[in-house]
Amino acid sequence: MTDSTVVDIAVRMLTITGELVAPMLLTALAVGLAVSLIQSITSIQEATLTFVPKMAGVALAIVVAGHWMISTLVGFTEQLFALVPQLVN
Predict the structure, then answer these.
(1) Regarding predicted confidence, which is higher, 35 or 2?
(2) Whether pTM exceeds 0.85
């Protein structure tokens, strides 16, 4: 196993991690922005008000993108297991 192989695996892992968390993070960002906008319009300054809508939005994102996320993760894991015989040499 060479240094470039390790770096390639690490870069691919970080790329897949970014792809997998993007739907949840972007949903939480959008919901948080919308709730903050509503709070500033209505002058309601309750910090805990954003928690429930964010959790609901993230849960919805997981339901919508969950199948894709699992299949991407399983595919990456299968690729890693396929590389094991080449890496042992």
Answers:
(1) 35
(2) no
